[in-house]
UniProtKB/TrEMBL annotation:
The chain crosses the membrane at residues 12-31, 43-65, 85-113, 133-161, 173-195, 215-234, 255-277, 297-320, 341-359, 379-399, 427-446. PROSITE patterns: NA_NEUROTRAN_SYMP_1 (PS00610), NA_NEUROTRAN_SYMP_3 (PS50267). It is found in: Membrane. GO terms for molecular function: symporter activity. It holds the Pfam family SNF. The keyword Cytoplasm does not apply. One of its GO terms (cellular component) is membrane. SUPFAM superfamilies: SNF-like (SSF161070). It comes from the Bacteria. This is Transporter. Keywords: Membrane, Symport, Transmembrane, Transmembrane helix, Transport. The keyword Ribonucleoprotein does not apply.
Amino acid sequence: MKTKTDQWSSKIGFIFSSAGAAIGLGAIWKFPYMTGMNGGGAFFLLFIAFTIIIGLPILIAEFIIGRSARKEAVTAYKTLAPGSVWSFIGHWGVAGAFLLMSFYSVVGGWVLIYSVMSIPGLIINEGADYPGLFAAITGNPFITLLGHGLFILINVIVISFGIKNGIEKSSKLLMPLLFVFFIILVIRAVTFEGAMEGIRFFLQPDFSKLNAENVLYALGQSFFSLAVGISVMVTYSSYLKKDVSLASSAGSVSIMNIFVSLLAGLAIFPVVFSFGLEPAEGPGLLFIVLPEAFAQMPFGEVFLSLFLLLFLFAVLTSSFSMLEIITSAFTEKKQRSRKKVAALAGLIVFLAGIPAALSTSNLAEFKIFGLTVFDATDFLVSNIMLPGGCLFIALFIGFKMDKTLIKQEFSYGSNLSAGVYQTWYQLMRWLVPVTIIIVFLGSLGII
């Protein structure tokens, strides 16, 4: 049983921390470039649909599993289904979080490097070649490995202090500030000459641009943005009190995630089209567009620096959740030192992430099925591990976990009607798993 000191102190702290775990790179970094590469407005519409119909129900399910078991991911499934094979979902989650962290920390290192460089004003320069700057930074193995290592070190330090002191306090302060700065950026972006072309690209669906692979990417993006499928939210909700409504909390996190994704698109694509940039630029899109946008503002370097620091915080809150699930899996049962486990986990993640960190430099020519190590790891996690984990969680909720316990956890702290519960339960039992299977098989060309 969790102790009082291991619990979230408030509902708002839990929501902001969960939103921080969900938003991070998923909504701000990955969503714009995935939208740019996969059809613009049609991809965005699919992303919203999958987030509401599939992602939100899965998020509620992970909350229910975590709070009912009061354990981290691996032990939670053992507690709820003792003596069965279902505990593999927890192990799947830890493995997924580890793989995700191995390349996520590389991008986190990029954000950290840009943040540090922006403070003395080393990014925005008149006539600067921002695509060239990004290529120069990511093409330097020493810089990328340094950023990768420092990013993981920050994670280890924060996770060592535990859930309440390390994560919740900072989330309640800095997450709202990120929203404010994003809104300022959007207001400036949409006033650029030619901005409407970017807005149309982002908000006007053209379904002729979609194929089965794009649909899989939209599904994977909805899971990536909500951090579902690897039981991160199982671990987070295990610290949650019984008087908090899980459905409303999940709804708040999902709405915030969609809203930030909308802001990200409105901040990025008007600038892309105004300055003749390429929407399908790929993982470097954000790092190229942000300096271009802030360079057009008074005190742009100052605002860029503040925004990057807030963005760094959002990225860190996501990575905290990943390192937390790994650390909790090895401290819960055997009462090991949290600090030692976090440090060891951080070291292993750093070593595992070296090939991804070097994918833009020394290992740029090394390919796995035509993809760099970075891209291959991203594809494995986003399009196989996350959808697979969500499918297993849906089957666990729908066909294994005790129905009375599920209903109790859904009802605690909530005044939602029985019809809402039944709708959610049937979605989890039938629509969610069937949709995941159809989308996955479609992407393979089987159906």
